[in-house]
């Protein structure tokens, strides 16, 4: 059974530690990968409401490029927990656990994501593949312009309303 431990962050209730979405995102992005407790990051990244751009930024903050071409058995013991967290984040990002914020899309991390994709393409051209490969087409489909409204002006109709209702099926 999956249960939430009530006192898990130095005696502070986890629900009150980080409550709002923007506070959650800020705490996740500012997480200290060198000295921080990865269990705390795991809890932060499991909360519903984090957007895709935040998740990608947290993933990139974990320095995945240092371990991307390293076999799992060759990862130093002190970095194995970091790589496990990167594996988890990669799976969640790839399967769609994090959704893009409709107002910003991937704009905050677009350049960093494009650099990652360029390295993926370079690897593919050399006939190799890194540990964490993302589907570039899924990221490219996300707009950074925010939602757009389609406004269609009403077409003027000179027919009287009663006749329009009664005779519309015939006139079509």
Structure description:
- There is one protein chain.
- The chain has a two-stranded antiparallel sheet.
- The relative contact order is 0.10.
- Helix content is 47%, strand content 3%.
- It has 172 residues and is mostly helical.
Keywords for this entry:
mainly alpha, 3% strand, two-stranded antiparallel sheet, single chain, 172 residues
Summed up, what is this model?
The chain is an all-alpha fold and 172 residues long.
- The low-confidence parts are 1-9, 12-19
**By helix and strand content, what is the structural category?**
mainly alpha
Helix content: 40-55%
Oligomeric category: single chain
SSE topology string: EEHHHHHHHH
| Largest β-sheet summary | 2 strands, antiparallel
Number of strands: 2
Taking Cα atoms only, what radius of gyration do you get, to the nearest Å?
24 Å
What is the overall pLDDT average?
84
Discrete helix count: 8
- Strand arrangement in the largest pleated sheet: 1-2
Distance between the termini: 60 Å
Shape, principal axes of CA atoms: elongated
Topology readout:
Blueprint lengths: L6 E3 L2 E2 H4 L3 H9 L8 H8 L6 H10 L18 H16 L14 H17 L9 H5 L20 H11 L1
Antiparallel strand pairs: 1-2
Helix pairs in contact: 2-4, 4-5
């Amino acid at each position: 059974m999956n249960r939430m431990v009530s006192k898990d962050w130095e005696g502070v209730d986890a629900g009150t530690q980080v409550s709002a979405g923007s506070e959650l995102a800020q705490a996740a992005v500012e997480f200290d990968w060198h000295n921080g407790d990865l269990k705390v990051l795991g809890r932060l990244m499991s909360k519903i409401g984090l957007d895709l751009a935040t998740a990608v930024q947290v993933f990139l903050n974990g320095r995945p490029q240092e371990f991307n071409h390293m076999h799992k058995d060759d990862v130093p013991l002190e970095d194995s927990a970091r790589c496990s967290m990167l594996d988890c984040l990669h799976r969640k990002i790839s399967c769609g656990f994090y959704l893009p914020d409709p107002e910003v899309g991937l704009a905050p991390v677009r350049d960093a994501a494009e650099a990652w994709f360029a390295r993926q393409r370079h690897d593919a051209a050399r006939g190799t593949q890194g540990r964490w490969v993302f589907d570039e087409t899924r990221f490219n489909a996300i707009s950074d312009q925010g939602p757009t409204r389609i406004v269609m002006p009403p077409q003027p109709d000179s027919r009287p309303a009663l006749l329009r209702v009664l005779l519309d099926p015939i006139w079509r």
